[in-house]
Amino acid sequence: MSADRIDPKLGLAGVLFLATAFYLGTLVSSGPQPAATTPPATTHGGAAAKKLAEAAAAPAPSVAAVDARPVFVPLPMDKVPEDEFGKMARLGEAIFHDTRANAGAFVGNDLQCRNCHLDDGRHANSAPLWAAYLVYPAYRKKDHEVNTFQSRMQGCFRYSMNGKAPELGDKVLVALEAYAYAMAKGGPTGVAVAGQGYPRLAEPATLDAAHGKAVFAEKCAVCHGADGAGQNDASGQTTFPPLWGARSYNWGAGMASISNAAAFVKANMPLSQAGSLSDKDAWDVAAFIDSQERPQDPRFNGSVAETRKAFHDSKMDMYGQTVDGVTLGQNAPPSGATPKQQ
Amino acid sequence: MAIRTLGKAAALTGALLLGAGTRAQTVDAKAIVMGGAANGANACSACHGDQGEGRPEAGFPRLAGLNPDYIVQQLNDLASGARANETMTPIAKALSPAERTALGAYLAGLQPPAAPVEPKPEEKVVAEGKKIALQGLWDKDLPQCVSCHGAGGVGVGVNFPKLAGQSAQYIANQLDAWKTGKRTNDPLHLMTGVASKLDDSQIAAVAAYFESLSPVAAGGAQ
């Protein structure tokens, strides 16, 4: 009789214990590194990445490997003096944080620079600005030109922000450059430091977008919405950015390449649980996201097939491919600046 | 016939029959808040205030202006035990599904000013909390609170509740509950991860910051 009374309590404690153990267990077993509970940013998730050039994405031995590149610690913004330069750098920070409010004329979707470069462009392994500053000017295959830091950022306005590139020397680009420089001061120029870009993932033999759809429903939809369109907060501001559709990055964006998206997602998503997805889940969910319609490539020349041949000829790029009987890019909303819908 | 009988009986016995007899058709949420429901649910107002403004010092949460579906979800979880609480679980259990829905809609629509809090927390503490809320603790891979709870903590949809103007004591209690595994009903265990990265003084600071924000200034009722 008394045993009957005690049992349920022990049972409950046991259940709680098991639940906890199960939770910890899933964190550990769902990826090579238990990053959800994790060590400092610079010591996790770093691949033994080579260079920033996409071509150099030689299969990395393991994502769990420590980033072997030289370590540079960016200067915190509160160490930057309040002089004329400091003012310009802080304007850059504000533009990066809320691009729509502070450089709205150049934005054509619901994204902000910080949505893909976390912690206002400071977070290692989400292509941080301070690390980028150190590796420009650089030749880019995308436009077959040597890009300055400013012209590199023009690309993110045109494609990632689906907007209009500010002219070189425009105050918006000057401010953003000042912001990056302020954090990069004292760093080694010409050196890809630890945390630069996204840690590249070893290429898988196959991509399974159908499995990616299931991963999306389980791990992403709670924030980004079942339809990938993101979510606004109660006052109407975008909190969770759209991953596809008319208000997201366009077909010309770096994130539209499955290899970039997989690397970004593995190192940064689900938000606050970075590194918790297996490589396979990251690749497949990226393949799923980048198989959805989004604004047209601004370089579109009238024919999806021709545009694919000219700019998207890669197995990591779904533009112009036929998925479920629909050719991606064929029904793309027009690219370019459209004001935010309320 | 049935309707007439019911009407007569209700007129005679008032609230007693209201709960049982007309539950399926109309639930008077305001009456439950002020006077409780059949099956033993206490008047919500005793702990959450007449207008759902809460009793901050006691850790009784503000319910006014929360997302209606979030309120229903929590009542369901409190009733099923997925979220355990000695005080609320029996009350939630006593509410029918229709009552939970009606209460969610009613409480979500209320917009009373914040219940007064004494003594006010030190400014230094609020400032430290603001920093965590708006900038995160990225050296521990902890994003800004507002990147999930919306600008100014106004809340996002059914899953990310409003924190602006919420009782600091209640916020701290919840973060503790996640840290110690007492609250486990969070989607993807997002808050379990968040809370595990905060120490006691950081919890106190961020709780004081959200309490200091007006619950009705931005966003308002959802």
How would you describe this protein?
The complex is a heterodimer of chains A (342) and B (222). With 342 residues, chain A is mainly alpha-helical. Helices cover 37% and strands 4% of the residues of chain A. A two-stranded antiparallel ribbon of chain A has the order 1-2. A two-stranded antiparallel ribbon of chain A has the order 3-4. In chain A, a hairpin with a 2-residue loop joins β5 and β6. The longest helix of chain A has 28 residues, at 2-29. Chain B is mainly alpha-helical. Chain B has 2 domains: 27-108, Orthogonal Bundle (Cytochrome Bc1 Complex, Chain D, domain 2); 123-218, Cytochrome Bc1 Complex, Chain D, domain 2 (Orthogonal Bundle). Helices cover 50% and strands 0% of the residues of chain B. Chain B has 12 helices and no strands. In chain B, α1 packs antiparallel against α2 (15-21), α5 runs antiparallel to α7 and α10 crosses α11. Chain B is globular, with a radius of gyration of 19 Å. Mean pLDDT of chain B is 88; it is low at 1-24. Chains A and B meet through α1 and β3 of A and α9 and α11 of B.
Compose a concise summary of this entry.
The complex is a heterodimer of chains A (342) and B (222). Chain A has 342 residues and is mainly alpha-helical.
> Which bin fits the share of residues in helices of chain A?
25-40%
Order of helices and strands of chain B: HHHHHHHHHHHH
Query: Could you estimate the helical fraction of the residues of chain B in percent?
Result: 40-55%
Instruction: Determine Rg of chain A (CA atoms, Å).
Output: 22 Å
The largest sheet of chain A, given as strand count, sense and whether it forms a barrel, is:
2 strands, antiparallel
Percent in strands of chain A: under 5%
Overall tally of domains of chain B: 2
Question: CA-to-CA gap between the ends of chain A?
Answer: 64 Å
Termini gap of chain B: 41 Å
Tell me the CATH architecture of the largest domain in chain B: Orthogonal Bundle
Q: Which regions of chain A have little confidence, pLDDT < 50, spanning 5+ residues?
A: 1-64
Molecular shape of chain B: globular
Strand arrangement within the widest β-sheet of chain A reads 1-2
Based on CA inertia axes, which overall geometry of chain A fits? globular
Can you tell me the CATH topology of the largest domain in chain B?
Answer: Cytochrome Bc1 Complex, Chain D, domain 2
The CATH homologous superfamily name of the largest domain in chain B equals Cytochrome c-like domain
What is the assembly state of the chains in this entry?
heterodimer
Please indicate the percent range of residues of chain B in DSSP E strands (runs of 2 or more).
under 5%
CATH class of the largest domain in chain B: Mainly Alpha
Mean pLDDT of chain A: 84
